[in-house]
Amino acid sequence: MSSxxxxxxxxxxxxxxxxxxxxxxxxxxxxxxxxxxKGPGIPAVLKARKRRYTGxxxxxxxxxxVEYLELHGFLVWHDNYSRRNISGLPDLLCLRGHxxxxxxxxxxxxxxxxxxxTWLEAFQRVHGIYALVLYPENWGELEVLCR
Length: 147
Hints:
This protein has five helices and six strands. The protein is of the alpha+beta class and 147 residues long.
């Protein structure tokens, strides 16, 4: 790729050469995982493709988890105003008999924050408490705990 100075692009002939080179490089980039997209006044812009998460939202997933737990006899607590609480508290506290499940729900590529990990690890150290980060992909862990 050549570097073009702004003064070069004032000249129509140089501007055409720069546009042709950029279009050529854009086409090569499109084959390597980038898309060439044209916009108004721009010969070509390289834009990285993003894979979008297409599964349920975290709220939808959490609603499914709550419903499943309640069907299996758990009392479930979720704070709808968690922004006012201590940072990192898990999403769900679920109690059945002498068992307490502490669950942080996540979807897609979302990961627990350091504060959430601190809280989950603290709960795991207590006998009879099961703390986990639950993704749709590891639903089987929840099924095992609900038996």
